[in-house]
């Protein structure tokens, strides 16, 4: 009964989110259009792309101080999310989702949080300690940006 | 022990009814319940699959992978779950351009469950699916639920059904026994009482408070026994009265017999007159209408066999009158010629029975054979009223100087019959004088005087009359034997002939060897 209530709530919430979200405008991104922000002081100021992949794929789940690493992304149906799939994970959107789905089911990682708007994403990062997110470059909104291979955007 | 009883019949009927319901109670009803439960269970599983599928669809659309897991968890928490799986269905394009649908297990819970991707519902498991159609994943949610619980429920139901059926059957049988006892008990009571009544116990009275048909039967039985008792008592009184009267009459008749015997000549008297002779005298009743008569006057012996009208008491009365008339004819009128005696006797009897002032017309009289035998004389005289004289000899016989026609022959023995006149003693329309016959006999010849009782007796295998011809043949076959032996043969023959048939008339036969 408890599960049924929980499921019903998720279904209702998901429907409401679907109904109020407008499809994002899809425009092509160029190299250097993505940045990585974090809400932790434990994150390195610079990270290699391969390490970044490792963190974002859930292979590393805690920061040095033991804080849980929370992943936050724009949905793959958005331009940023799509760009991130191809450029960070080297996967199609579908492959990325299946990857996360499989990882979650296998209990290897917690499910990343996906957002329709960058505002929501940024708010989430601000409010959630240990979060790492991939955003549109130059839109960090005062959050700590870590460089990838020495670059603020990639 | 009697098997076909009302009680057993009722018990058998109840058992048959109970057994008739058994297939329904033990088989059809549980199976019907099983089908209902199974269908319900399939629907429930289908609903679960649909719910999970819907949750997974929505969560995937939202890339809410935790939501997917939560949706899957909806099924996982069910104890009846065998597995829940997310099946991925991909359309793969082949080199030749055709497409192949490939199904693979994306995830399955429990993880160690060996899932056949093509699994179908079976006796042990109900399988249902719900399609997943999202950008992320095409496939289906597949759930399998154990039917163990439903089987357990069915078994519990069957057990309950069997127990309740047994209880109902037991109650049915007990009810049947109770019914059988309640119906058969009074019937047995009635049967026992009827048996006692049959054996003469008329004090039977049954008590039953039931107001049904058996109660009515008891009332009717009591009434019947009461009525029977009354009737029986009346009959017993009547019987006693009849027995008393019968005894009185029998005593009177027995005394009358003594009187009748007094008029009959004794065997000694006959033996004195005829050395070789027999008298077979078998009255039908205590007293007889037949009588034999003998009167000896010096060397003359008159002997006769008479058959008076009727038998029993009336016959005996007539015989007394007739005997007296014969005595009177001989002693008062000094007659010795048989025909003259008969004529006189006829006259006396008619005068007795035809009193002028009598208002009653008496038609009684007698048939008679009368012989006169003179000592040392080969001639005998005979006169008869309807009755004949039978003679058996080895020689020719002359009657009034003429040859007598032979009636029967057996080798060298001849049976002669001299018929009596066709006129009885007593009232007759055309009265004539009786004819006197003088017959010459030889030494060793035998004469028989008879009444009609022997020849007219019914009997034998076909219940017919013995007949005169048979009687004559019998005498012809035994005439040379000693007279005593002839008497025994005649008695045995007629008794055997009668068998179970009643003696119809008085019988009298006298045989005298000359």
Q: What can you see in these coordinates?
A:
The complex is a heterodimer of chains A (154) and B (514). With 154 residues, chain A is an alpha/beta fold. Helix content of chain A is 39%, strand content 17%. Chain A has one domain (31-148): D-Maltodextrin-Binding Protein, domain 2 (3-Layer(aba) Sandwich), CATH 3.40.190. The longest helix of chain A is centred in the N-terminal third of the chain and has 19 residues, at 2-20. Chain A starts with a helix and ends in a 6-residue tail after the last strand. In chain A, 30% of the residues are buried. With 514 residues, chain B is of the alpha+beta class. Chain B has three domains: 17-150, no CATH class; 202-263; 264-513, PPM-type phosphatase domain (Phosphatase 2c, domain 1, 4-Layer Sandwich). In chain B, 47% of the residues lie in helices and 24% in strands. Chain B has helices at 6-61, 65-76, 148-198, 213-263, 267-273, 312-332, 338-353, 468-478, 483-498, and strands at 81-93, 99-109, 125-133, 138-146, 277-282, 290-297, 300-308, 365-374, 379-385, 389-393, 398-399, 402-403, 406-410, 413-418, 425-426, 437-440, 446-450, 458-459, 464-465, 507-513. In chain B, strands 6, 7, 8, 9, 11, 12, 15 and 16 form an eight-stranded antiparallel beta sheet that branches. A six-stranded antiparallel beta sheet of chain B has the order 5-20-17-10-14-13, sandwiched between helices. A four-stranded antiparallel beta sheet of chain B has the order 2-1-4-3. In chain B, a hairpin with a 2-residue loop joins strand 13 (406-410) and strand 14 (413-418). The longest helix of chain B has 56 residues, at 6-61. Chain B is rod-shaped. The chains are: A alpha/beta (154), B alpha+beta (514). The interface between A and B is medium-sized, with 27 and 27 residues.
């Amino acid at each position: 009964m408890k599960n049924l209530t929980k499921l019903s709530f998720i279904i209702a919430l998901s429907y409401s989110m679907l109904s109020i979200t407008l499809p994002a405008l899809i425009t092509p991104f160029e190299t250097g259009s993505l940045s990585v922000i974090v809400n932790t002081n434990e994150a390195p100021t610079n990270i290699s792309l391969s390490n970044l992949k490792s963190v974002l794929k859930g292979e590393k789940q805690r920061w040095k101080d033991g804080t849980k690493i929370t992943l936050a992304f724009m949905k793959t149906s958005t331009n940023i999310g799509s760009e991130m799939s191809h450029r960070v994970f080297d996967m199609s959107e579908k492959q990325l989702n299946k990857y996360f789905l499989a990882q979650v089911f296998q209990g290897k990682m917690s499910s990343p949080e996906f957002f329709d708007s960058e505002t929501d994403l940024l708010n989430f990062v601000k409010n959630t300690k240990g979060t790492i997110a991939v955003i549109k470059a130059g839109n960090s909104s005062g959050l700590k940006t870590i460089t990838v291979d020495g670059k603020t955007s990639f | 022990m009697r098997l076909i009883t009302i009680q057993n019949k009722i018990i058998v009927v109840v058992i048959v009814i109970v057994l008739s319901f058994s297939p329904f109670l033990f088989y059809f009803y549980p199976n019907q319940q099983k089908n209902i439960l199974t269908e319900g269970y399939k629907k429930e599983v289908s609903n679960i699959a649909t719910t999970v599928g819907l949750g997974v669809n929505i969560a995937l659309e939202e890339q809410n992978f935790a939501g997917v897991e939560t949706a899957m968890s909806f099924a996982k928490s069910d104890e009846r779950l065998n597995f829940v799986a997310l099946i991925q269905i991909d359309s793969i394009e082949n080199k030749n351009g055709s497409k192949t649908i490939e199904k693979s297990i994306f995830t399955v819970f429990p993880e160690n469950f060996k899932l056949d991707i093509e699994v179908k519902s079976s006796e042990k498991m109900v399988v249902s699916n719900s399609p997943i159609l999202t950008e992320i994943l095409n496939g289906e949610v597949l759930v399998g639920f154990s039917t163990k619980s439903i089987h357990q429920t069915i078994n519990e139901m069957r057990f309950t059904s069997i127990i309740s059926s047994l209880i109902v059957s037991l109650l049915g049988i007990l009810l049947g026994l109770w019914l059988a006892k309640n119906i058969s008990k009074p019937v047995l009571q009635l049967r026992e009482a009827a048996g006692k009544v049959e054996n003469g116990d008329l004090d039977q009275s049954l008590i039953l408070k039931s107001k049904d048909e058996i109660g009515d039967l008891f009332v009717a039985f009591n009434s019947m026994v009461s009525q029977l008792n009354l009737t029986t008592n009346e009959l017993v009184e009547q019987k006693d009265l009849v027995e008393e009267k019968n005894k009185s009459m029998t005593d009177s008749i027995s005394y009358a017999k003594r009187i009748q015997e007094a008029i009959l000549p004794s065997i000694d008297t006959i033996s004195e007159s005829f050395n070789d002779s027999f008298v077979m005298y078998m009255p039908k009743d205590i007293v007889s209408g037949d009588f034999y008569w003998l009167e000896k006057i010096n060397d003359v012996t008159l002997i006769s066999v008479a058959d008076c009208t009727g038998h029993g008491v009336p016959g005996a009365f007539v015989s007394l009158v007739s005997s007296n008339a014969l005595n009177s004819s001989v002693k008062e009128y000094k007659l010795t010629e048989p025909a003259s005696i008969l004529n006189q006797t006829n006259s006396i009897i008619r005068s007795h029975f035809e009193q002028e002032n009598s208002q009653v017309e008496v038609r009684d009289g007698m048939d008679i054979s009368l012989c006169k035998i003179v000592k040392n004389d080969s001639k005998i005289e005979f006169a008869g009223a309807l009755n004949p004289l039978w003679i058996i000899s080895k020689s020719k016989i002359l009657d009034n100087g003429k040859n007598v026609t032979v009636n029967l022959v057996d080798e060298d023995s001849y049976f002669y019959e001299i018929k009596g006149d066709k006129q009885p003693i007593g009232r007759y329309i055309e009265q004539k004088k009786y004819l006197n016959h003088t017959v010459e006999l030889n030494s060793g010849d035998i004469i028989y005087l008879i009444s009609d009782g022997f020849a007219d007796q019914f009997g034998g295998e076909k219940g017919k009359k013995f007949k005169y011809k048979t009687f004559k043949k019998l005498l012809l076959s035994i005439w040379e034997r000693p007279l005593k032996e002839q008497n025994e043969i005649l008695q045995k023959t007629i008794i055997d002939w009668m068998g179970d048939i009643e003696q119809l008339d008085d019988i009298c036969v006298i045989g005298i060897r000359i």
